[in-house]
Amino acid sequence: MPRPGGIPTFMRLPHQTSAEGLDVGIIGIPMDIGTSNRPGTRFGPRQIRTESSLLRLCNSSTGDQPFSRLQIADLGDIPFTMYDIRQAVKDIKDFISKVVAKDCKPVTLGGDHTITYPILQAVKEKYGPVGLVHVDAHADVNDSMMGCKIAHGTPFRRSFEEGLLDPKRVVQIGLRGTCYTPDDYKYSTDQGFRIILAEECWYKSLTPLMIDIRKQMGNGPVYVSLDIDALDPCYAPGTGIIIK
């Protein structure tokens, strides 16, 4: 089959409707009803899958071939309502709960960052409070946004309040840009989160930092969250909130 052909699954993986027998499931969450600025991330999962058709199965640097040792499939997109954010969060949580109940690790494609909150709710049911490696331009620990408690800028505050996170194993990397107040990161540090500003990552190898974070995470369960706005917008301008 030519690369542009066939069902556009992630990396042209098999499509399944059940997580049974899988080590990893790729899941799309095409939601952007929690964003406060530009919409459009609802199209993210589809575009990621399209672009991923050119990826090959072996890492040229490490020689690793994950598909030879793990059972991985694309589980499609989560069905959820686009008109009620609280119901959408419940829909996402219920879907992910069924996946992790099968001992399948979810790899989700968003979607605005609101989706992290229900994912962590589901993961906590299976694994208890988890460590977090969060790569983002923003801390996403607002108490509310325009009066709403659930939005793309609040997921890690809600998650901490509900005991979904192990605060001693939370690292937020790449925070940058302007703030509302000098205390914008105070909530994170008050809870014991580790903050690493983008400026601390400039002009040097990140290998020592990654080794240190790996030690901090220990052997407990860890959730990794990557917001595309962590990248310089000259390379990735297609994000809801551009931070230069």
Automatic annotation (TrEMBL):
Organism: Trichonephila inaurata madagascariensis
InterPro entries given in the database record: Ureohydrolase, Ureohydrolase_dom_sf
Family to which this protein belongs: Belongs to the arginase family.
Cofactor note: Binds 2 manganese ions per subunit.
Binding positions for Mn(2+) per the UniProt entry: 113, 136, 138, 140, 227, 229
Name assigned to this protein: Agmatinase, mitochondrial
Cofactor: Mn(2+)
Keywords: Hydrolase, Manganese, Metal-binding
Single GO biological process annotation from the record: putrescine biosynthetic process from arginine, via agmatine
